[in-house]
């Protein structure tokens, strides 16, 4: 029933920008907390950005200022604007929906930042 589909990943140069989208279905989108997680090779998955149902946001220190999470409740879509990208941002990025006590992820989208 719940479906999350990420898009927008790709290969970019250091210092470049990329915008990710996550289209959600099977939920009343506006009621839910959303996150962007990422997982780099050989590393644990980490949550990089958070947004609640009223638009309050939070970021891991490594992406503060550079990344912006937002949501469009009419379109049922979550966004991540990534600027000033670094090689260490290379990872698979996942959209996460929380409907307590469960979390749901999409398939992920690959972001590769080249030097």
Question: Would you mind describing this structure in some detail?
Answer:
The structure is a single chain. With 115 residues, this protein is an all-beta fold. It has strands at 3-7, 10-13, 18-25, 33-39, 46-51, 57-59, 67-72, 77-82, 91-99, 102-105, 109-114. The mean pLDDT is 95.
The gist of it:
By secondary structure, this protein is mainly beta.
Produce the secondary structure layout.
Blueprint (H helix, E strand, L loop, with lengths): L2 E5 L2 E4 L4 E8 L7 E7 L6 E6 L5 E3 L7 E6 L4 E6 L8 E9 L2 E4 L3 E6 L1
Parallel strand pairs: 2-11
Antiparallel strand pairs: 1-3, 3-8, 4-5, 4-9, 5-6, 7-8, 9-10, 9-11
Principal-axes shape call: globular
Q: Got a strand count?
A: 11
Q: Biggest β-sheet, characterized?
A: 7 strands, mixed
Classify the secondary structure makeup into a structural class.
Answer: mainly beta
Low-confidence stretches: none
Name the helix and strand elements from N-terminus to C-terminus, one letter apiece. EEEEEEEEEEE
Oligomer: single chain
Average pLDDT across residues?
95
Alpha plus pi helix count: 0
State the end-to-end CA separation: 40 Å
How large a portion of the residues is in β-strands, by DSSP E?
over 45%
- Give the fraction of residues assigned to helices: under 10%
Give short descriptive properties of this protein.
mainly beta, 115 residues, 7-stranded mixed β-sheet, 11 strands
């Amino acid at each position: 029933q719940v479906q999350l589909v990420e898009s927008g990943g790709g290969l970019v140069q250091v210092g470049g920008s990329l915008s990710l989208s996550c289209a959600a279905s099977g939920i009343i989108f506006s009621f839910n907390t959303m996150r962007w997680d990422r997982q780099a090779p050989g590393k644990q998955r980490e949550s990089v950005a958070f947004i609640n149902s009223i638009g309050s946001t939070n970021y891991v220190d490594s992406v503060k200022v550079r990344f912006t999470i937002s949501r469009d409740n009419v379109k049922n879509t979550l966004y991540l604007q990534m600027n000033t990208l670094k090689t260490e941002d290379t990872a698979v990025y996942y959209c996460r929906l929380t409907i307590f006590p469960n979390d749901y992820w999409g398939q992920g989208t690959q972001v590769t930042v080249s030097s």
